[in-house]
Amino acid sequence: MEEIKSLKPEAIWHNFYALTQVPRPSGHLEKVQQFLLDFAKQVGVEAFKDPAGNIVMRKPATPGMENRKTVLLQGHMDMVPQKVPESTHHFETDPIDAYIDGDWVKAKGTTLGSDDGMGVATAMAVMESKDMKHGPVEVLITRDEETGMYGANDLPEGELHSDILLNLDSELWGKFTVGSAGGIDVNAELDYKEDANHLDGAVKVTLKGLRGGHSGLEINEGRANANKEMVRLVRQAIAKEGARLVSWHGGSMRNAIPFQAVVVLALPKKNISKLEQTVEQQKHILEDEFKGIESDVQFSVEEVAVSETCVPEEIQDNLVDAIFACHNGVLRMVPAFPNVVETSSNLAIIDIDDHKALFKILVRSSREDMKAYMVEQLTSCFSMAGMKTTTGGDYSGWDPVPGSPIVELVKKVYCEQNGENPVIQADHAGLECSVILSKYPGLDIVSFGPTILSPHTTNERCLISSVIPYWNLVKEVLAEIPEK
Description:
The protein is an alpha+beta fold. It is built from 11 helices and 25 strands. β4 (98-101) and β5 form a beta hairpin.
């Protein structure tokens, strides 16, 4: 694993390797915050943790560059903590076990953390560099971006002094992001009193092996949602095998397409073999429907101890109906750009257990009216099941600015260095740019990064060969930042 430190460019990779050794799942960032403060002290730049828990660094201009505009390098310190079912990894205590596989850096059984570890490592490389040419540089490493952009939302006004924002959280080299979708969390809850269970059999049904993925960047690829596929099986089990719902746990991150769901059902013991057949049939249907997309579908049944209680029948039926009816996936594309997703929702998390049902959905849209429409649609669905719906983490989209000077500069440098024009587009993924822009409306913004595939999944990987040209671009753009 230590050979990652020696990959080119070492300026980025040795810092990324250091980050893999520091636990930093969303919500548990004390270690990485201290790591970043210690790093800044070691390389001799100003740094502090602000009231929002973000880390801010500042480095003065190199000689002769003092009159250039100030640039803010921005990324987020947290990573999505996903792991394969058999992994014993503890994200709050264990380092990431990264390795090199051909032209890729991957992690064994977990997310890699290149989202946004590569952005953070880049900012660190600039802070410690002794030979780069640049004007004044600020760094903003936000906390808990993945769970609600909390660091950006709580960013104090007046803390930053930059003119230009380089967001280092995009994930396809050669593509420059100039706009992004807004988003909002929709949560539905229901408390219930459990019924006594009089059935003599019980099974745990597990659906796993799905690809999952980023609920913004990959929502349009038609990947299976474990919760939506599991509800088809549960509905049949209730209708055909006389099953009752005991518990349901599907998905773990609001911004990741769920790749696994586990349900416990009570049913007559004599019907277990019939349920096993139903599961096998549903597996074949799923494989056929998602042929070419899902290649490792695993649907299994395991007998377990009989629970003393189960979800009341009427509530069970209402919850199953709500899950079945809940919109998931792309609602519509941008009419003027039919290849760009406008509005979507992701039925990310379902937890039904211990007297409580909780659903979590992330809605994304580049239009505020369509975002509100999607929230109302989901609220109507869950209201029919007797559930209370709340929203949170609302953030608006980031609208492209025609003729942006920083976009024109990165286009020019990219073309000179690579002999071709980059792709300029808006993303359906949510970026912190919109939130930061609401507090610092004068910022000129562009977002870019090296190629990172399947973020938010255990198949996350970073393309090694994309990091060299990415770093060359960062260095030259900083050298060519215009005067104030």
